[in-house]
Amino acid sequence: MPTLSVFKDVPLAQKIEGSLLKIYKQDDYPDKFFLAYKVCMNKEGHPWVSSVVPKIRMQISRDPSLNYEYSPAMGMKTFIQASLELLFGKSNQAIAQNRIGGLHTVGDSGAFQLGAQFLKTWRQNSQIVYIISAQKEFHGLIFQDMGFVVHEYSFWNSSKLCIDPHIIFDVLEQAPQGCVFVIGNLSNCKLTHNQWVKLMSIMKNKQIFPFFDIPSQGFITGDLEEDTRFLQYFLCCEFEFFCSQSLSRNFGIYDEGVGILVVVALNNELLLCALSQLLTFARSLWLNPPTMGARIITTILRNPTLQEQWKLSLKRVVENIMLIKEKVKEKLRLLGTPGSWEHITDQNGTHCYLGLSPQQLEYLVTKKHIYVPKSGRINFTCINTNNIDYIVNSINEAVLFSGS
Amino acid sequence: MPTLSVFKDVPLAQKIEGSLLKIYKQDDYPDKFFLAYKVCMNKEGHPWVSSVVPKIRMQISRDPSLNYEYSPAMGMKTFIQASLELLFGKSNQAIAQNRIGGLHTVGDSGAFQLGAQFLKTWRQNSQIVYIISAQKEFHGLIFQDMGFVVHEYSFWNSSKLCIDPHIIFDVLEQAPQGCVFVIGNLSNCKLTHNQWVKLMSIMKNKQIFPFFDIPSQGFITGDLEEDTRFLQYFLCCEFEFFCSQSLSRNFGIYDEGVGILVVVALNNELLLCALSQLLTFARSLWLNPPTMGARIITTILRNPTLQEQWKLSLKRVVENIMLIKEKVKEKLRLLGTPGSWEHITDQNGTHCYLGLSPQQLEYLVTKKHIYVPKSGRINFTCINTNNIDYIVNSINEAVLFSGS
Q1: How many other C-beta atoms lie within 10 A of the C-beta of residue A220?
Q2: In this predicted structure, what is the pLDDT of residue A14?
Q3: B19-50+308-401 — its CATH code?
Q4: Are the C-beta atoms of A392 and A332 separated by less than 8 Å?
Q5: For testing contact with chain A, the best of B10, B100, B235 (most A CBs within 10 A)
Q6: How far is A197 from chain B (nearest CA, A)?
Q7: Taking CB atoms and an 8 Å limit, are A285 and B11 in contact across chains?
Q8: What b/e readout covers B379-400, taking b as 16+ CB neighbours within 10 angstroms?
């Protein structure tokens, strides 16, 4: 009798991502460009690494005093402390009150996986999640797979060509009492004082639980404090919230996939209860988080000179992004490309919307071998002095010769 | 109106582990010893690191050609390949047939978390798990939390004072058709040829799915191939199975928590389906596994000279463990301690049962400040020339002055 396979009813899973990159790699055309990389690129077209990181890697590898024992499930204490201070400021009152804590998380999904497991278990009366971000986020699937009802929205208004704060108010209006709001890069929204007051007042009234996503603090304005100032507003208004802080991108250690899940509670007692439950989930997920990334970050953040050098390297990245965007806008203006291109420089961060129609985007891919995602949100750090002219000319062509 | 906390109904989670270590640390007695560390200790009483690892850490940190991009969700391909070859042999037929694959997993729980999620989804008609190992394992909780019915057994027979293969046959008899068997360190069992044939025949008839745990290949006999020879038997008999291979302990890079989940299928097509589904779970769990540990291991395994040096360092560890056990046995014999102590040298590996009664173990902790777990399974690498006399004398005292 032939053995029946255990896997006989297991179908091939659908590919979720990476197909654009695959097509790009298979393209034989010499002047092909991929503008959809997730990581920040340097001027030479390689993944950016903060200039302070390589020497710290070497220093750590040479340090005979280091202990390579298992890290606790919570993670490295010094790393968590340094990350929280980065997010909220060293002399933050809520940190002093011991009502902010965190757990070391793994990879770009780790913090959402951990937070979602907690909410699934301890917020059973409300399993509805609204995800509002600049683009469709991968963590939507995490909540969905766990059985949450998930609604996703983008901040981008494609007709007005802007990051539109009104979208969040529209979503808030329809959201039911007690749901979870996963919000990406809120500081990109540039809300006015009145809008902040209104936002928090509605969220408070509806008892909405915020779960913020901070994928790359410092990459929005180049100023670490400025990028996360909105967290202070939520602290002041006595919100309790979660926050996924990834620290891989802003240090350029993508391969070490490191971050923390931040927990803000009304007092220390509540915080300790929440952290203790999160710890049981972390034990089942990985038991002991890998430490290399956390060691690099902690070494840099705890040394004022190194921290300054790192901040400077972040500033340079943001200045370079602004310069590229300015150049793209200026070149389009000189070419006389129809339309206003202010939206390019109005958006912050590495990834921004080009504001092109689906047909125009399709034209770039198929006719010009410029690989852009269907959303039209590209990584501007993939544009450099070697490819900017070809890319801008191609955008001009796409606008002129393709449907809007 | 005072704000009600989101966390108001969240209780403090029970502490699962670490309480013995906590009591040990709080003990002011100067001659206190902790014999329950999870990691292998060197002769100086520090966590063992393979002598080849530090120079590779340095080499990696200095390598300008390395790419620090996000690793794919599957993990580093070269690392997976090298790990599979370590487990099954380089010229293994099943590897050549492309019916063995793996995913890079994180921490000591990662592979079980991933495998359990797969079995939960794709083996819904049988959610019963038997865990048979040298001791109570943490992954019992992973399966339990996911809703499996979990039964746990230890290979240790405390009346016969031996690792008892009959236990697995007793468990097999009561186990229902189609259940999952999570089996730890099976090579410790020293089954006879006939017992192997019988074991596999029953498992095949009952369509039991094996999920092997290989926490530290090479630490049992000092010979990597010998330690996992039983996997070849299961391959030959056309079993499909999972295997959690941890690579943190046998390289001494505990802080990098690195391993793989191995999948063995009847053919390549079935393997690809299983891997594709596992990949979707890995994406939700961590998306991109940290690479430092995988880089260290791959560098060592792909270089024949380094691999030989590493194997030699493993052999030395095992020789040292055997020497410590011999010394403990001999010293007990010289003291005239009642009882046979052959079971100490009959057991393989770093962690072995002392074969003491609960009262005798309690005596060691409370009267002699020697911290041993309630199971009586201690880490023999925690015994060294500085503490062996005190420990052996204390065991003698415990046997003489405490209940058996």
Answers
A1: 22
A2: 83
A3: 3.90.1150.10
A4: yes
A5: B10
A6: 17
A7: no
A8: bbbbbbeebeeebbebbbbbbe
Strands (E), A319-401: 351-353, 370-371, 377-379
Neighbours of B354 (CB within 10 A): 23
Residue B355 contacts residue B328 (beta carbons within 8 Å): no
Going by the DSSP 8-state scheme, the letter that residue A261 receives in this structure is E
For B:68-127, CB contacts with A below 8 A are: 68-71, 106-110, 113, 122-123
- Sequence-ordered list of residues with C-beta below 8 angstroms from that of A8, at least 6 positions apart, any chain: B270
B208 in Cβ contact with B169 (< 8 Å): no
Residues β-bridged to residue B103: B261
Mutation site for A-interface testing, chosen from B5, B104, B261 by largest number of A Cβ within 10 Å: B5
Q: What are phi and psi of A299, to 5 degrees?
A: -60, -45
Q: Which tokens in the block code for residue A227?
A: 């990028």
Ordered mean pLDDT values, 10 residues apiece, chain B (404 residues): 83 80 92 94 94 96 90 94 97 96 96 97 92 89 95 94 93 96 88 94 96 95 94 96 97 96 97 96 94 97 98 97 97 95 95 96 96 96 96 97 78
Angle between helices A304-335 and A388-401 (to 10 degrees): 40
Phi/psi-derived region of residue B84, left when phi > 0, alpha when psi is between -120 and 50, beta in every other case: alpha
A182 to each of A136, A214, B61, B281, B285, how far by Cα in Å?
12, 11, 37, 21, 18
Chain A nearest CA to B342, separation (Å): 31
By the 8 A CB rule, do B330 and B388 touch?
no
Residues of A in contact with B109 (CB under 8 A): 283-287
pLDDT tens digit string along A119-152? Answer: 999 998 889 999 999 888 889 999 999 999 999 9
What is the CATH topology of the domain spanning A53-305?
Answer: Aspartate Aminotransferase; domain 2 (3.40.640)
User: Domain ranges in chain A?
Assistant: 19-49+315-401, 53-305
CB atoms inside a 10 Å sphere around CB A212: 22
**Min distance A128 CA to chain B CA atoms (Å):** 15
* Cα dihedral across residues B384, B387, B389, B394: positive or negative: negative
B355 and B332 Cβ atoms separated by less than 8 Å: no
- Kindly state the DSSP code that residue A47 receives in the 8-state scheme: B
For residue B19, give both structure tokens: 């309480």
**Residues facing residue A180 across a β-bridge:** A129, A209
CATH number of the structural domain A19-49+315-401: 3.90.1150.10
Determine whether B253 is exposed, middle or buried from the number of CB atoms within 10 Å of its CB (0-12, 13-18, 19+). buried
> Cα–Cα distances in Å, from A65 out to A61, A62, A245, A305?
10, 9, 29, 22
Kindly determine whether residue A255 and residue B38, on different chains, have CB atoms separated by under 8 Å: no
Q: Is A282 helix (H, G, I), strand (E, B) or coil?
A: helix
Is residue B282 within 8 Å of residue B74, measured between CB atoms? yes
Specify whether the CB–CB gap between B347 and B336 falls below 8 A.
no
Q: How far is CA B230 from CA A73, A268, B304, in A?
A: 32, 51, 25
Interface test with A, best of B78, B272, B292, B297 (most A CBs within 10 A): B292
Q: How many CB atoms lie within 10 A of CB A258?
A: 31
**ipTM computed for the complex:** 0.94
Between helix B268-285 and helix A110-122 the angle, nearest 10°, is: 80
Using the Cα atoms of residue A85, residue A87, residue A93 and residue A95 in order, give the sign of their dihedral: negative
- Site of tokens 């809703």: B147
Question: Are the beta carbons of A57 and B61 separated by less than 8 Å?
Answer: yes
Q: What are phi and psi of A351, to 5 degrees?
A: -105, 125
Cross-strand pairs, B404: none
Q: Longest C-alpha distance within chain A, in Å?
A: 75
Distance CA B79, CA B81 (A): 5
